[in-house]
């Protein structure tokens, strides 16, 4: 079973290399390779999840070199659960992208660029989830960021280049901080293996441990868009093409959250920064949702809700308890799926009408009832309407906060309730204006109509008949999020087991030590 652990990293890298060798020819072969690769990743991820849940963490030493000499990939309950969800999401987004406007923009940027960049990003995400070494985690972040730089600027339009510049600067700044933290940690302990760091940090002076923890926390907070390091996100994500925006919003920020979970649970359990994390979680929730309420564009509204709901996950980590961590894990799984589906629906709206401005939309309930349903379900899920998975994740976090009993934890409970209500208000306002009121602009009347107006991104294409794969992929993600409600018992139990394994630390450390022997 350990031989399967590197497969989710190697498969997309090999597929990307094959696509680069093929070049711009054989577009259908490009699509087939991508879909087969991502489907195989999903199957392998499910197998690894079942094995890790039943038999404990699995460890593969890259190149046969044991830790700490070599780099280990560790598949435990948390990492394999993240792999399963991310594989399902990236597969659906790839299906969506096959029929999206990339075909319309072939003259601007060929699919032979999009597919390799997408697969390299997917490989980086998988590597980040499986990495048992801090330096390999740095490499994983660089892989996924390298692919995301290409996807964010896909098409080469001025708004995307401008947003890409901001995104690149933030990525490079966080990478420099990451290297500094790695240098300090290696100088102090002589290793970058997470398992060995967890044991050696215990013997370091408190001020040195705190320096490493805060530096790493700052790095991951930038990547996860935790307030006040979140200003870059609402200006960067909305400019990207719909599939890229969806996978960025749903998945990339969660890699930062995953790193924070590993940092706080494995390397610095019960550290002194939990209070800082609580305040950061509260500020992220409230500032993000305040920005969402003020927006008049669906993409920007969803970008601010993305920032806001990152606060829920940080809230669970900050409690430093098994119930809090279980709530954080449950909410990460829920949010990856729901946020991705909302951005995909927004892409459908833009393709159908040529805009995502709430002030210009209207009457979509009559014009496109299927889009209306596909938007309404994940929007209510994001708001936490019972009995959906958003409600279940928030309930776990609220129960953990009440059980904690500290005044700041109870303040977080109140802040999470306010954030949930304001999220409901933001999506309800969007729904009322975009779907219920009378149309504000004339809808498309032909199958494919190129608007006479052109923007900085070029002519907008609207379509009265949306491609089936786009709608099907979006519906599949909406259904996946709904299935979390049907499987609430097993999923919450799995999240609890993953949290217990994280907080116990011993299963992880023993598995890596056993592989070294």
Automatic annotation (TrEMBL):
Under InterPro entries, the record lists: CPA3_Na-H_Antiporter_D (IPR050586), NADH_UbQ_OxRdtase (IPR003918), ND/Mrp_TM (IPR001750)
Q: Where in the cell is it found?
A: Cell membrane; Membrane
Q: Which residues cross the membrane?
A: 6-22, 29-52, 78-96, 108-129, 135-155, 167-188, 208-228, 240-261, 273-294, 301-322, 328-349, 370-388, 408-428, 470-487
UniProt membrane topology term: Multi-pass membrane protein
Q: Report the domain of life of the source organism.
A: Bacteria
Domain NADH:quinone oxidoreductase/Mrp antiporter transmembrane: residue ranges:
131-417
Q: Which family does it belong to?
A: Belongs to the CPA3 antiporters (TC 2.A.63) subunit D family.
The name on file for this protein is: Na+/H+ antiporter subunit D
Which organism encodes this protein? Nonomuraea typhae
Taxonomic path: Bacteria, Bacillati, Actinomycetota, Actinomycetes, Streptosporangiales
